[in-house]
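Here is one chain, start to finish.
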Amino acid sequence: MKIRLLIVDDYNIFRSGLKLILEKQINFEVVGEALSPSELFLLLENIKPDVIVLNLMLPQKHIFSITQKLSNKHPNIPFVLLSGGGDEFSILECVINGARGILWKESTTEQLVIAINTVASGEKYLFIPEYKLVNKIIEHIDNTSSDKYSFSEISAREQDVIKLFAKGYSYKRIGKELNISPRTVESHKKNILSKLDLNSVTEMIKYAIKHNLAEL
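Its structure:
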């Protein structure tokens, strides 16, 4: 039985080239193409692909919209991200929203084929170069429980600070978002690390992701 694929990308040339590559595989069938979230979800009303191949070079707001909606409305359809680089935390958000596969510009056609076959079988294929910070975070997610945790000691404002750190914001930008000074942000950070017995912002982000606090 062939693996039914749906490609999402707003560049016609890229989408057409990717379709040609994928249809050379005897067990792949491209059953749909979309260039926007609206087109994708319109197609999903009528066809049920086995895997969605999503280009992360789409506008960021489209990526977030697609991954969130797929996670909520079509959780059983796995999707593979094709990334040209981009912001690591944008990629991490996609993983949190259910991305089962990730490939980068360094990846080969063979790796793409393997990734699709892997996620179609229910497994993950997260190909991430070792130098990527997000690699360590994803490993942490895979090796720990994601059960909801009661942050009884963390105030609502401190939770806001954690979420903004998880988005990669600077002290200055967090202060601007929350209408507080960078020094106050630093104070909140120290309190959070102390309450959670952590040593760095990176550990804070890992901890928040593990316990479903950070929704980037």
